[in-house]
Design brief:
single chain; 8% strand; elongated
């Protein structure tokens, strides 16, 4: 059984799931769910629909080029079953997956490194805008003392 990739969102299409559409010129389109099939029929461009992998790669939100992607390519070469070959292939797949995850994390960290400073500046701007709403602790303590002294004077009178 083969896990196909969705033509629209590039997600996995597992056997028995999704829709397979065959055009008149015998081109086969696999869709993982009806949402992707519907958008394809509406002639939407996957690079302009924000939830697709094509958009995320075009917008620079995901890695577009990496050597680990070469291992995911489809290979149509039949190979005679060999237990050792299968074992080394599975180990290599696990190792490639770990490398890919590490690189994706580094890519994400690099992409997000400016957000901390940007958020800090946005918070400062918000405080400056509503500075009249912020009361200092010294003023708060002075107001508390005034209230307690006013209550004492009322009790004495």
């Amino acid at each position: 059984m083969r896990i196909h990739t969705c033509y629209f969102c590039s997600g996995p299409c597992y056997p028995g799931h999704g829709i397979t559409f065959v055009r008149n010129d015998a081109k086969i389109f696999h869709f993982c769910r009806s949402k992707c099939h519907r958008n394809f029929k509406l002639k939407r461009n996957p690079r302009k629909v924000k939830w697709t992998k094509a958009y995320r790669k075009a917008a620079g939100k995901e890695m577009a080029r990496d050597t680990t992607f070469d291992f995911e390519r489809l290979r149509h070469r039949p190979v005679k079953y060999d237990r050792d070959l299968t074992k080394t292939t599975v180990r290599a797949m696990e190792r490639v997956q770990k490398i890919k995850e590490r690189r994706e994390k580094a890519f994400w960290d690099k992409r997000m490194e400016g957000n901390k400073e940007r958020n800090r500046l946005a918070n400062i701007a918000e405080v400056r805008q509503g500075i009249d709403l912020v009361v200092s602790p010294v003023v708060r303590a002075a107001n508390k003392e005034k209230k307690t002294s006013a209550v004492r004077m009322q009790e004495d009178a």
